[in-house]
Design a protein that fits this description.
Elements lengths: L12 E4 L4 E9 L2 H8 L12 H12 L10 E9 H7 L6 E4 L19 E2 L7 E2 L6 H24 L4 H4 L8 E9 H11 L6 H14 L4 H7 L2
Helix pairs in contact: 1-2, 2-8
Bound molecules: flavin-adenine dinucleotide.
Length: 228
């Protein structure tokens, strides 16, 4: 099965990184009314649909960090991203993950080539700046050549009989991986605040933006209150 067809029809993925990666919403549980009902459990009240009072309550909960009602809404995403984005993402320990294993399969190797390379920021050792003085074509060609060379060494090692779990060590960080990620809305909001931020690496930021687009139709009042 091609990686592009894992779990969801491609049309249901939001493409990111110039179409090289994607994120899809596999499943979700709960809605905005779930949040306000959870907040009102203590009063023994339950509603079928949101009204203006509920929207106000929802905003109040967000403003005052009454976070637990948001934990009753849960999402499972399918993510296709470079290994370095995966590493940043999986630092978020409140998510649950399952990922393709390169101990099991050597098929469908795909590699990210940045649509644009960026310059190293002088002031912040973690950050990058817009591509002003970099030879774009030459840099992208180098990255592509290195990705291909990595596959060449990997394939040669497999042909020699080396096991997949060791051979994979030569594959570059640009290797695209696929994982499922499940999280509740409280922890998703924290993730999005950190990763759709000027401080975050551009690549993971594109996934955070895509997730907002995926869930916004179901959570318009949350999105509005948070300024998405
Ligand atoms: C711009 C940026 C740059 C970064 N740079 C680096 C870097 O250079 N090096 C690096 O190592 N990491 C770096 N990180 C990762 C960062 O340190 C966090 O690990 C990551 O953002 C996950 O955040 P979190 O712990 O709040 O999320 P989660 O792991 O999802 O946790 C959510 C919340 O749950 C609580 N929690 C979860 N687990 C525990 C626990 N074991 N003990 C106590 N409380 C817990 C905390 O309140 C936490 O805020 C960076 C992150 C960002 C956004």
């Amino acid at each position: 099965m091609a990686a592009d067809h894992v779990n969801l029809p491609p049309a249901q993925h939001v493409k990111v990184l110039d179409g090289q990666g994607w994120v899809g919403l596999l499943e979700s549980m709960g809605s905005e009314v779930t949040i306000v009902n959870a907040a009102r459990v203590s009063l023994g009240r339950c509603r079928e649909a949101m009204d203006d009072q509920d929207v106000k309550l929802l905003k109040y909960l967000l403003e005052h960090r009454h976070t637990s009602p948001f934990e009753h809404v849960v999402f499972t995403f399918s993510v296709h991203c470079p290994l370095f984005v995966r590493s940043q993402w999986q630092r978020h320990r409140t998510w649950s993950y399952n990922e393709i294993s390169r101990r099991y399969t050597e098929v469908d190797l795909e590699f990210y080539v940045p649509p644009q390379v960026r310059e190293q920021a002088a002031s912040n050792r973690q950050a990058s700046i817009e591509p002003l003085h970099v030879d774009q074509a030459a840099a992208r060609q180098l990255i592509d050549a290195h990705n291909r060379a990595g596959v060449g060494v990997y394939t040669r090692l497999l042909e020699m009989g080396v096991c997949r779990e060791q051979a994979r060590g030569v594959l570059p960080q640009n290797l695209l991986t696929t994982f499922w990620a499940t999280v509740d809305l409280h922890n998703l909001i924290s993730f999005l605040a950190l990763r759709d931020s000027a401080d975050a690496q551009w690549e993971i930021r594109q996934y955070a933006v895509a997730i907002k687009a995926l869930i916004l139709p179901q959570f318009p009042s949350v999105a509005q209150a948070l300024g998405w």
